[in-house]
Amino acid sequence: TPGGNGKIVAVHTNFGSDAQLYIRDIEDIMFNNSRCAISVSGNLITVAALRAALGGSIPAGSKINAYVISDRTTSNLVSQNLVVMDATAGITVRFSSAHSFNEGDQVEIPLDGGTLSEFNGLMQLEGISGGAVTVVSSGNAVPPITLTLSALLANAETYESRLIKIQNATITGGSTYSGTLTLGDGSGTIDLFTRFGATFASNPVPCGTVEVTGILGQFTGYQFSLRNPA
Predict the structure, then answer these.
(1) CA 20 to 30 Å from 177, out of 28, 35, 62, 142?
(2) 3-state helix, strand, coil in the chain (%, to 5)
(3) Half-sphere exposure of 171 (CA within 13 A, CB side)
(4) pLDDT digit string (tens) for 60-73?
């Protein structure tokens, strides 16, 4: 897709209550200007740069601008935790109490007062007040990174706290999602973990080959977690 700014020619239609635009071909998109910048105050750093500060100091006055990829409504994460991702990396943010940020929110997180630590191997950003976080936009669709399990596990630290899609996968080890199952795709396997308190913990596990999108985390070892049954 184009990365600039400009004009678009398209045909307008409706699908139910959703307005839609159809381009006829890619020549209808004339994005020849520079893309609009997101307005942020302070020093914006990438999530990858933030992760690289583990064991050192987070730059004073810095912020990250990232997208929420976790789904708090299904309770498959503890209510204090939020997982965000930008184009460079992902990270888990742990607040002192339950937060209200939704999947698809674009958030600006000031980092002053924050610390980085590892909890059972999972890197977490702590010490940030939920009240200091600004929602820049909502309802964004964040595309997952499509990988085989062998490629994921070969660079697992790079992909930690990112949204990953595994194709041609099978789920074995139980009839419902609750607890630890095995996700495999012929190239490797990984634990598929669902909290007992998740809203879909008792849902039946699909049979056969499936496409699975979830978040890579760690709890002494790497594990994959779904956001919701879809």
Answers:
(1) 142
(2) 10, 45, 45
(3) 25
(4) 899 999 999 999 99
